[in-house]
Design a protein that fits this description.
Blueprint lengths: L13 H18 L1 E5 H23 L3 H15 L2 H14 L8 E8 L6 E7 L4 H9 L12 H32 L1
Antiparallel strand pairs: 1-3, 2-3
Amino acid sequence: MRHGKKFNHLSRKKGHRKALLKNMSISLITHKRIKTTVAKAKALRQYIEPLLTRARKAASEEKIKDATHHRRVIFSHLQNKEAVKTLFGEIAMKIADRPGGYVRILRTGFRQNDAADMCIIELVDFNTDALETQTTKKKRTRRGRKKKSSETTTTATTNEAVVEETEDTVVDTDNTTKEEE
């Protein structure tokens, strides 16, 4: 019976699943965004969130001894010096004020080959495109807003100036044609 076995086994044995999650977490730490299936992304989120929390706590603590312990524990999971260095360097500083939810899963559709549900998993604080769109987004309504009277007068004066410029150019072309005759 399967009682109490809630995590996704991903159709792999324990060693293969552990190696898969370790390699995917190293890729996510180094590249900040990877493309994978939804099932693997959800399993990776469960695997990497505690590691990111441990790195965040180690960055906020002032005792060097505790930070060394956290580094060694994370290294035992990842087995990659560059990934641990990146994790404790730039990533821990960016996620220092975030209480959790360090990873975002964005569904991208279905894979052409086998119709597997695909997604992009990324570190939340490193997506500059989403951060820029949140700040520049304007509030819209279903019905347009009424224009203010000052805006309509300024647009009317600019339209008149454009009409005058176009008339001048027409006159200039007419003068050149008369001169040529």
